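sry for the spam today, last one i promise. struct tokens for design, 98 residues
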């Protein structure tokens, strides 16, 4: 796997807070930050996909693709995200056609 080094400037108090948290959870600061970035980016992708689905701009399967999750996972996340399944009888009939 190829890696890239990223560099950011943050207030010293924030960096100290991250170091304390890393110590509390038994990780080094870099590992904690990588984990937090991954989770944060995943959350942003899910929010954007959910918003596009809510507005009717994309299908549920496309929203799942945008979020980088399976269709099943996206369906599980609908209710907690305040979304409803936009799938009616007409959609089912269309999906059942050979």
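last one done:
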């Amino acid at each position: 796997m190829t890696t890239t080094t990223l560099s950011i400037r943050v207030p010293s108090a924030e960096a100290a807070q991250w170091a304390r948290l890393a110590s509390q959870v038994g990780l080094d600061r870099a590992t904690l930050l990588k984990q937090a970035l991954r989770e944060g980016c995943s959350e942003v992708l899910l929010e954007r996909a959910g918003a596009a689905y809510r507005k009717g701009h994309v299908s549920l399967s496309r929203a799942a693709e945008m979020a980088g999750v399976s269709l099943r996972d996206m369906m599980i996340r609908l209710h907690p995200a305040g979304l409803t399944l936009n799938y009616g009888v007409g959609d089912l009939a269309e999906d059942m056609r050979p």
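The mean pLDDT is 91. ok im logging off now
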